[in-house]
Structure formats: structure tokens, C-alpha cells
Amino acid sequence: MFRNQYDTDVTTWSPAGRLFQVEYAMEAVKQGSAAIGLRSKTHVVLACVNKASSELSSHQKKIFKVDDHIGVAIAGLTADGRVLSRYMRNECINYSYTYESPLPVGRLVCTQRSWKRPYGVGLLIGGLDESGAHLYYNCPSGNYFEYQAFAIGSRSQAAKTYLERKFETFVDSSRENLIKDALFALRETLQGEKLTSSNCTIAVLGIGEAFSTLDQETVQRLINEFEVVGEDPPAEAAAAPDQSDGAEPGPAAAAADDDDQETPAADQGAAPMDI
Amino acid sequence: MCRTCVAIAGADYCVIAADTRMSTGYSILTRDYSKIIQLADKSVMASSGFQADVRALQKVLAARHLIYQHQHNKQMSCPAMAQLLSNTLYYKRFFPYYAFNVLGGLDSEGKGCVFTYDAVGSYERVGYSAQGSGSTLITPFLDNQLKSPSPLLLPAKDAVTPLSESEAIDLVKTCFASATERDIYTGDKLEILVLNASGIRREYMELRKD
Question: Which residues form the Proteasome alpha-type subunits domain (chain A) (predicted)?
């Protein structure tokens, strides 16, 4: 990007009324691996791509439980993300200590400080309160917005395109369909790599369901059930129509791929899921 | 000092019991107040004394346990919780929590453990304990039934009682029935929590209401 004389300090405005340090911090978010959030009236699903810095290392944790009813997925400087989740966890614990009730998510989202460097991490905060399920995006500028679905991090535009197509169905979506959509959106950011349970993490929370991260086996089973494969699938479904994702004529796949059949009928076709 | 709490550790279970009467002076405030709280999946605490301090102490421990779970991704073990309780109590050494606690649970090997405390955090792992106004009546009886011979004798005997779970529960019921007869602060109803490998179970028994 550009270097100029107004970008050394976060407390210096440029003549055009911009804080360059904040904008540079927002660039850091775009460098991180993708994180996606979607919500229905009753559930929020957070999903992220697990990127390991080398083949020898393990991937960094990007989804954190903040409280039973709040979870956060981060993209950008994961160290900053961890500092913020620790802060948010403390806020939740202090609030429920004082008020004996869970912290409303909207109160959690203001966390930036003006005298230090901005946090170089974007937060997708999913939470539940009395008015239902919410998804917020908190960016390094301190701004936050509520979303039906959003994606951040590298190659998130591909996921956003998918989400923009489908978001109107999310409000009344079932929990399983929401997870399915998250997996599909995640697949878009992988651009050709095969989606497996080892390169993604999914977390769910909802009314009556505390925040939890799905374990690898469950995720792999869901991936297989929804037949979510990469763009160069092995021998199987070469001549698939573009909307479906290499679906074989199995009972689960048939209902799952067609947009018009995004109804309860799709659930009955799929195997019962005991997650 | 109001209320009475008792805990007994067994080979693979732990029994914690407390009455449910809350009183002040010669009056009863309520007949149905639980003093037992489950702090972690294998730790249960019962406290007698000033209930406002007891409640505050329970909240502090619950918050600290949440933090532990966030940082370590697992529940606190009973011995760890025992140390935390001791530190929390000593933190207020010069303005103490007026709470007399007994912590019970299963240790990491699945054996029953009971820890008994004073108000400022001095604690010890024992095989059984009683705290509260009825403790002076119950402890001699438990000593008679459960106390192992001197630890100086060989072979070394475990503090944990050889009684079975149902025998221990019956013993606890007997203790409270007797304490209720003579202690004005003990009575109304007995709440018993049993922790074992299959989880936690609650039982209730009516006590004399006078």
C-alpha cells in the first residue's frame, strides 16, 4: 500500500480525515485465513479454515468460547485475537457475577483502545440474548455491524458471494442446514483444495444449546453427508451441474443441493444427525 | 453459627449432606435453603456460617472455575479446587469469609476425598468431616464409627472409609437425626448429594421441624 507522513501514529489524522494506522490494521484482517459466520433466528454457526504455517506445525485456534451463549471467530493477528477473547471472557464472567444473568452480546462489542496500536484482528461474534441469535462483525476500527451472514479473511469474497446468494434462507434455516451452508461457504474460500475435517473448524450455538465446537469426526461425517468436495473431485462426479458440489445420486445429496428444495424435506432425506 | 454439614469419603464415592434450615437467633428464616453447591463435575462444597458470605464465596469460586476451564479446556479436579478454596479464603485473612466449609468429591483416581476448612483457609484432606453448629454432636459419633487407628500404626490404613455407599448414606441420616434432637439450628430437611463414577445424585430426608 502507500506510505506517507500521516501513517506513523494512530493518533495522527491525515488531511483527508483518515487514520491510516487503523486502515492498515484492517489490512491485517484480510491477510488472515478465512472465518465465516451465519445465523438463523435460533442458531449461530461459526466456521473457519485451519491454516498451519508449515506442514510440521499444527494450526492456530481461531474459534473461542467466550461464554455458554457467546462464541467468537477471529481473522488476522491471532495473538491480538486471543487477548481480546480473554478480555471478553472476563467481561462475561464479571457481568454474570454482578447481575446473575448472561451478558447481552451487544454490550460486548466495544473493545478498542485509542492510545495503543489498533488490534489487528477482525472478530465475528456470535451470541444469544433475549431477542434471539445475533452475529456481529467487529473490525479494528472499533466499528461493529450486525449481520445475517459474513465472511472475513483471505479469499472471503468467494464465501461472501455464496452467502449473498443464500442469506435470505438462513433466518428460518434449521441447525443442520445452517451448518451445511457454512461448510459450503467455507469450501468456496479453499479454491480447489479438498475440504476435510482437518482443515476446518465448526462451532455452533443456539437457543437451548451452549456454545460448542464440533469434533473432527462429526465434521467429517457432515462433510461426507453433504457431499462437499473440492472443485477437482477424484473419480466420482465429473458431470455435475454447477450449483451442486459433485453430488452422487445418494439420498442425502439429492435433496441437499437443489436450492428450491431448501425445505424440511431435505432434512428427512438426510440421515439423522446426533451431534 | 448455623446449619450443619457433613461429608464422608468412600473408596469410589463421596457423600455430602447438609440440613436446609436457615435461622437467626432463636427464629427460623426458612426451612428450605440449599447450602450445597456443585462447583465442578467432581467437586461439591457445603458451607455453614453466615450465608451472605457463603453465597459470595460460591460465586467467586464459580467464576474462577470458569476462567480455569477457558484456560485449560477441562474441569478442575477436586484437589485443585481444594487448594483454590484455601487460597480464596486466605486472601481475605484480615476480613474473613464467615464460612465453615467442607469440600467433597472424587480425586483424579476416582477415590472419594473430603477436605475440611476453617474460616481462613487452613485445610486438610480427611476421610470424613462435620462443620457447623451440629458438628460438636456429630463428630464424636463419626469418630466412633469411622475413625481409623493411629496413622503411626503399621500397616498404614487409608483415611477413606471401607463402608459401602448405602451404608455411608444411612450413617449420615443417623447423624443428622441425632443432631436434630439436640441442636436447635439443625432440622427441617436433610439434603444429601452422592458423587460417584456415574455422576451425581440428590436425596432428601425429612427431619424434625422443631
Answer: 6-28
